[in-house]
Amino acid sequence: MAGSGADSGVRRPFERLRRLSTTADGEPTAAVALLAAAVSAAVLSPVAWLLLRAAEVGVSDAVRLLVSGNTLSVLTNSVALVAVVTTASVVLGVPLAVLTVQTDLPFRRFWTVAVALPLVVPSYVGAFAFVSAFGPRGVLAGVLAPLGVEIPTIYGFGGAALVLTAFVYPYVFLTTRASLLSFDTAQLEAARTLDTGYRTAFRRIVLPQIAPGVTAGALLVALYTLSDFGTPAIMHFDTFTRAIFLELNTFARSHATLLSLQLLGVTAVILALESRIGPGEADGYGSRTSTDTVVELGWWTVPALCLLAAVVIVTLGVPVGILGLWLVRSGPGYAAGGLAFEWTFGLNSAAVAAAAALVTTLAAVPVAYYSGRTDSRLGWLIERPTYVGYAMPGVVLGLALVFFGTKYAPGFYQTLPLLIFAYVVRFIPQAVGSTRSSVMGVDRALVGAARTLGETPRRAFRRVTLPLIAPGLVAGAALVFLTTMKELPATLLLQPAGFTTLVTYIWRVQEAGYYGRAALPALVLVAISSVSMLVILRGENT
Amino acid sequence: MTHDTDDTTETDRTADTTETTATDQRRERPQMLNRLGAPKSGVNGDESSRGRRRFLAAVGSAATAGLAGCAGLQSDGSGGADAGQVAFSDFRGSGRLVESRPEIDAPRIADLPDLSGELTLYLGGGEGGLYRELVALFERVYDDFTAVPNAGGTAEQANKLVTEGEETPADVFWSVDAGSLSVVAEEGLTAQLASETVENVPSTFHPDRQWVANAGRARAIPYNTDQLSAADVPDSVMAFPDSPLADGGIGWAPTYGAFQAFVTAMRLTEGESATRDWLAAMQPSVTEYPDEFLTSNAVADGEVAGGFANHYYALRVRDARPDAPLELAFTSGDAGALINVAGAAVLGPSDNAELAENFVAHLLSAEAQEFFATRSFGYPTVEGVPPVGGLPTIDELEPPELDLSKLSNLEPTLRLMREVGVL
Question: Engineering a disulfide at B237: which of A75, B281, B304, B336 sits with its beta carbon 3.0 to 4.6 angstroms away?
């Protein structure tokens, strides 16, 4: 039907495009490489501002700052926080993924959604909820105190690690889950017919295959932890982001940028580590997805349900409960003016997040395609830098773009395109990550088979490759959408005049201490983002 | 005159009640007030609205307040009945503490040139939307005035302005923190204000006329009147550790910015080691609270006998709980009496300097000053506008001699507080 004469005129440009983008053996061509490199360079550009500002610091001053006791303790704190949060997220995320994918757990769909949802809660809202629940004179502290239960202080390292883990472990859950879904359970069956226990089989067969997924999630957790400002600030724990914020607060921009560069150094180390233990070229994703029950829980059902319930109560129940409390409880005895909530804030948020998701996904495709299809060093060099923006504190990225915007693109300054560019820089690794793994998962043999059966390259691409990477694209876009929804610092710096989103409104009322007024927009934010979480899970054939 | 003032208060209260029950019916209010018999003759004639405003200004504040909601400050030019009428009482807050405001003896909006055109306004902080509300009132007064606000944290906005430099699109920087204004001024980005603009503001609040304070917030010592008398609160904050105040327990919020600014002030005036000793000596008597509203509320509850807080938090508590046994004491000449201010600057690179300067002048009008005093319980900076709650006026307070921009150097303070274990 598509092979009619009229169609061939259309086909030729497509074929040319196809030929342009891949060489005969499936390696992407220079054109794709160039495009990918361009995207990579663009998202790396804010670092130039850092170097420019850091250069203003005298060498001796810089050295003194970098080796001062304070900086070293900030470094230690940050590294420790990253290590603990990442480990805890893996320890929590992997079992939850196994439970919801491979067991006969009751209400699996419900639990899948429930344990993934904490990701939509902005960390500053979550941290604040935790403080008002467990902090000094907190809601729950007050309830538990007469019962003789004393809650250890929520502030400091423990609180920061707890809160961050609670709201970012779903990264590991989601990526692990995706790997488990694509895992061919027949292998596991085979192992078990050979009389291997599930635990051994899991260790020897499942784990190696889901390792790339787990590491991908862990990387996102680690970098998010490095760049998050809200949680350490609210928990009074000195990390790079808090130190940078303090420097900016005292208007020492060059010191702040020096610290930012140091933070990026830590990022580079993490990225290098990840690529060492990270994705082996696991082939075969996309052959089929499976949620077949592999393990019958038996009497383990009860402890499993308890674990899930506990996780959901802490990560979702506490913040939503506290927000609900704020919503019904009238604020302190003074009324604010000019703070009326408007539903258009929600629309603004959703619209700008959708635009950011679209642009980010489009920008991610060449990078993901190139690095997923090539084994060359260049692919690595192009893909890795896209993670830098993700680890950069939003306020630093924001200031960098303020600088470039006013100096080189005044027409775009304080307009939506520049704001969306900031989101692209910040969140592109999420789209690159999920798109890349789906590109890698497309069995080249499948494309080959399609060609053998007489399909044109274009049709082979459309009928084989595209459907296979589409879930990856959608999942990446949805992830970008929900993280854009909750991004605050860069949004505040780059917002166009008169453009109020949910987060800038939350910031506005919270800044004045009208916490009660933050409840409604925060709940709306969580609700809208939940929809994109459903999209992510739906894409995985829940 | 006394009689006149009483009338005024009564009418004003009626207006306030109307406002709280029917905020969206402002346009109908003149009629309602007419029915209440408030307006006097002479202002409903054929004069142009501009002339009417001049006249109002001349009548004096008592009479003007009496005309609240009736004649209003109609926008120039249109003069029609459909123009948004804005009365003095529209600027004034409501609530118990505002019920008996005296006459305000200060220049009014009517004395200023009209605001006209579009103003790009960088807001640092903004007291949770209150500043936007004031801007909205100005926009109601003047039909062809629009302010385009761009809001962020105070330091954030200052950093943004400094990063933008000469390319900044902003005309005015209006920030709730003096330090952020100083930084922008030090970068040479502010334009000097005209001396007429700032003439009614004490000179400490317009350093070199690079910016001018529109409202202040004073550090204060809220104390529980059931437990302490004013005499129990020492005149010097350094004497607190061995005072009856300390015996009854003191509440503080060490994570709160204003408290950290107070410790910074102490560090700058008394030196690091004295501050360290003071913090350590205070620790056995203190209870920590997450913010200073809760600190003040705890003082009212008697959980602690006294506390450290910005003055307006106690006023908010008293506004909500009129019977609260809560009073404010002020120390003198030391960090405990620190006053920080919100202020505004005209930006040098602005090509809209005339409007920008006029906007700043409007922030110092009697109406705006009354707005800051009664809506957020801030300290008015213009002479002749008293604070609410029977507090001493701003020139009666004795703040320490201190360059407010130095307060932004927070890191040594935080280090010190951490060393002692306060943070």
Answer: B336
Contact state of B293 with A513 under an 8 Å Cβ cutoff? yes
Partner-chain residue, chosen from B162, B167, B410, that has the shortest CB–CB distance to A407: B167
Q: Tell me: pLDDT of B33 over 90.
A: no
User: Does A272 share its domain with A410?
Assistant: no
Beta-carbon contacts of A532 under 8 Å, excluding residues fewer than 6 positions away, are: A120, A478, A479, A481, A482, A485
Which range in A115-119, A323-327, B415-419 is most confidently predicted, on average pLDDT? A115-119
Residues of A in contact with B169 (CB under 8 A): 413-414
Residue A142 within any structural domain of the chain: no
Q: Cβ(A225)–Cβ(A160) under 8 Å?
A: no
Task: With CA atoms as reference, report the closest residue to B307 among B354, B263, B249, B267.
Answer: B249
pTM beyond 0.95, yes or no: no
Name the more confident of B356 and B19: B356
Q: Which of A309, A329, A349 is the last residue of a domain?
A: A329
Confidence of residue A29 (pLDDT cuts 50, 70, 90): low
Helix (H, G, I), strand (E, B) or coil at B387: coil
Query: For residue A77, what are the domain limits?
Result: 58-119+168-228+243-329
Dihedral of CA B99/B105/B111/B115: which sign? negative
* Per-residue confidence band for A253, with pLDDT thresholds at 50, 70 and 90: confident
CA distance B34 to B56: 17
When CB atoms are compared, the residue of A248, A337, A513 closest to B155 is A248
φ and ψ at residue B189, rounded to 5 degrees = -95, -5
List CB contacts (< 8 A) between A246 and chain B.
410-411, 414
Q: Read off the pLDDT of residues A510-530 as tens digits, 9 standing for 90 and up.
A: 776 677 778 889 999 999 999
Residues of B in contact with A402 (CB under 8 A): 160, 163-164
CA distance A532 to chain B (A): 28
Provide the domain count of chain B. Answer: 3
Residues A282 and A424 in one domain: no
Residue B1: which pLDDT band, with cuts at 50, 70 and 90? very low
Q: Which of B130, B163, B408 to mutate to test the interface with A (most CBs of A within 10 A)?
A: B163
Is residue B290 within 8 angstroms of chain A, CB to CB?
A: yes
Task: Kindly report the nearest CA distance between residue B307 and chain A, in angstroms.
Answer: 17
In chain B, residues with a C-beta closer than 8 Å to the C-beta of A141 are: none
Select from A65, A229, A249 the residue whose CB has the most chain B CBs within 10 Å, as the one to mutate to test that interface: A249
Amino acid of residue B144: D
**What is chain B's alpha carbon radius of gyration, rounded to the nearest angstrom?**
22
Mean pLDDT of B328-333: 95
Which of A278, A298, A329 marks a domain boundary?
A329
CA distance readout (Å), B310 to A335, B215, B313, B376, B407: 18, 13, 6, 12, 16
Closest to B417 measured CA to CA, from B249, B232, B280, B288:
B280
Q: Is B120 on the interface with A (CB under 8 A)?
A: yes
* Contact status of B419 with chain A (Cβ, < 8 Å): no
B136:A338 CB<8 A: yes
User: What pLDDT digit, counting tens, does each position of A47-90 carry?
Assistant: 888 888 888 877 887 888 777 777 888 999 999 999 999 999 99
Residue A117 in contact with residue A169, Cβ under 8 Å? Answer: no
Domain residue limits at B190: 109-216+340-380
User: Taking CB atoms and an 8 Å limit, are A251 and B165 in contact across chains?
Assistant: no
Q: Which residue of B has its CA nearest to A517?
A: B128
Average pLDDT over every residue of A474-491: 91
Please report the sign of the dihedral spanned by the C-alpha atoms of residue B77, residue B79, residue B84, residue B88: positive
Please indicate whether, in this complex, the C-beta atoms of B129 and A338 are within 8 angstroms of each other: yes
Residue from B28, B43, B135 nearest B84 by CA: B28
ipTM of the complex: 0.77
B63 at A interface, C-beta within 8 A? no
Taking the CA of residue B46 and the nearest CA in chain A, the distance in Å comes to: 34
